[in-house]
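Batch job 17 of 40 flagged for manual review because the log was empty.
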Amino acid sequence: MTTCRFMQSLVKSYLDERRSAGFALKIAGDQLLAFARFADQRRHRGPITEKLIFDWVQGCATRPAAITWARRLEVLLPFAKYCLRLDGKTYVPDRSLFGRAHRRLTPHIYTEGEIRDLLVAAGQLQPAGFLRPATYQTMFGLIAATGLRISEALKLRLADLDVSGSILTIRETKFTKSRLVPLHPSVCEALSSYIAFRKSVPATPNSPLFVNDVGTQLHDRTVHSVFERLRTRLGWTARGSHPAPRIHDLRHTFICRRVLVWHKQGADIDNAMLALATYVGHAKVSDTYWYLTGVPELMALAGSRFETSSSSRRTSLHG
């Protein structure tokens, strides 16, 4: 019996066309291929139907949530329009069916104890004494200490790390820009120790920084799977709007802690936020400012600063 790959063939043709026009479609491409495998496993042939879309959108999510459905629908929409050109019977869903696909959800802000426990648990991964536990411990520690995106950490090459200059080069980021990330001495020390241990596998300057025991670059799905197992072992309870703490929340935590320190120090927050936006690779400083509204403690500090500023202006006016 031959394997049905009807939808996978369509998706690959669509992705080839879009990528030839300059669109990366990394995450969207992975999701579309997941949809295609779902359709092919059902041996679906012919135009995309309403039932097929709804079964995948609502049936594949491990935790049912309207925002998850909305984001899956958003990924499928341009592909469905592409298929409509090929078959007029293709069902094209309404984008707003499950509400907005992009809503700001409150992140899980890790405590210092949670981050410490994560790094200890990562260092205890099996097989003990091999590269795997050191890789995950160092990678999660680097993300927590610098606010890197997981995709940026996985793309790092050995040549991107300048320990003597305490600088990390992040190349071709989310917005196709590169940036330099200054490192704290403690981060350089941890990375140096990892590099020394990493010499157990062959490498060139262009080799990935974070690898498995045979020197192969880690896959995004593998890293998330390992993190989920560690999260379950540690018994964390989500404090944000997401069903469970995520790797990306380490980035949120880094930014929020930095802003919190600046607020308490009475720093010039506008200049500081510009610097922070550059450091973490935000395309717009407004994306960094959002963190003031994402965490209650920051909202309270922001409100306090506003009250102090308003009182000073009133005093000045009536003085």
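Reviewer: the log was empty due to a logging misconfiguration, but the result itself is present. The first strand starts at residue 161 and ends at 162. Unflagging and moving on to job 18.
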